[in-house]
Specification:
alpha+beta; Rossmann fold; Immunoglobulin-like; Jelly Rolls; nine-stranded mixed sheet; nine-stranded antiparallel sheet; 11 helices; 20% helix; globular
Length: 562
Amino acid sequence: MRSRNRDDGGGVRRQWLSLVAAVFCCQPIFGAVPDTVFDVAALTATPLNPRTLTSTESGGIVTEEVMFHSEMDGEKSVEIFALFSYPKGAKGLPALVWNQGGLGRASTHFTHLAARRGYAGLCIDFPMPGYRSTGDYPIVSGLELTDDLRRAPIYHGAVALLKAVSYLISRPEVDGEKVGMAGSSWGGFYTTLMAGIDSRLKAGSAMFGTGSLQLGNRWWDGSGWDNKRDAAFRERWRTSLDPAWRLQKASTPIGWFTGTNDWFYWMPAVMQSYEMASGPKHLSLLPNWDHGLDGEVGEQVFAWLDVHLKGEPAFLRVTPLRLTRVGDEVVAEWSFEGPRKARSAEIILSYGEAGNWTRRYWITLPAELKKGRCTSKLPSCDLPYFISGTIVDTNDFRYSTPLLRAPPGEFGAAGHKAMLDYNGCGMWGDFEEKQVRYLEAHSWACPPISRDAKQGNQSAQLKPGGKTVLPPIFFTAGAPQRFSCFLKGANATSVVIELGGNFDGTPVVERKEFPVGTKWGEVSLQFTPPHVLSTDLRATISVPDNVPVLVDAVSFRPNAPQ
């Protein structure tokens, strides 16, 4: 059964559309506000009281368990536990603070990685319940405000990081003028926040996490725009605990490295944070990646720190993308400069109005690269789209332009409704080795693999007598699309396919039963995803007991015939 599509078309939808329009038109939507939350001078002046609990050495890397004082919260003394690693005999090294994804407990993974790269590395236990630090603040419970902002859990995490930087500067192994910070997810959130708060930081490198979360985020708006967080609440958040707004007065170089479809931190927030940063800045966008990065962009996170803390060659710098109309074609153009060698250039393009940030599909198109200038011709279309240009260098590092919204009235052509063809399951739908690695990078479940394939070398085994939920599907909201896959059974049987998900919290599902033979055969299902803010779309295949069934060549394509 299919439930009724929900598209309110009213004030709530207009509110987030207007906010997003302001971002992509590069217009400031709020003025600067003095920082009344963090008194950095006072917070860093309190005694550090450092002590080393244990010290071990392995493979030439020394790792210490340490504690230091963060703050007095009333009568409570907040003490921070951290792991500190450095090459044996080190003196005056550049240093970095690593902030764990999800603010997980400190581990040596990234402190040892830092030491192997020639850094002194520090990773703290945030002052959260059950951790080795004290404080017991529920920091990752959500993006919440309190009447007294100095009692907000996020505030106490920031104070702990201020004192973490103080700790690094106090150590003889560290050059106090070369301290940076990096982190993933919640760790990227805090990296962005601290780049605006702590001028002692000389570089920040954020995976996924960003600021400008008043523009929409998973915590508040995962079931559609949350009216409980009204304009006044979002403005108070923006000018107090949000990481982005302080960047307009900060000079700390900062880079953001993210998938275009991150589940928690949406593109409008990333773009506004990038726009607000007044110091050197960088952007890497990985199309159709969610909360994960490939190996090259993961390495680039640390290469950005190497530039600013170790004097490695500067990253390439890209100009914003420009679109011009030439007859029936649209020409995208941008330029770049810098000491690194560019290998190729490409465009990423996603059809549809603002919204569906976590599951919209991004098409990659080649661009011509010549003497520091990049161009690409695009077909006219009367649909709006978002677009970015990317340079790829010889290390496979990515240098992306900010997203630009292309309005159909200016760059479209009446009657040209057809989109470029794509497969919204193309990142995983053939279950080949590279696609399995993509799923693993996101911690998404992959069915068991079979070497009996319709195409390529591999297919997937569906669970007999149960349901298999396939990985997320990417799509263009509001466009009719066709789901198809090839199935093969050990014996003749039937399966039930349910295609759907939650759209701003409302379930929309198509369900159909299909016969399956002992030879590969195609089945298909039509589906039009509604246009909403927050979405997910998956296919679930139910298989009868004791009948092994294989699936391969899964696709979801727009404008496909029935």
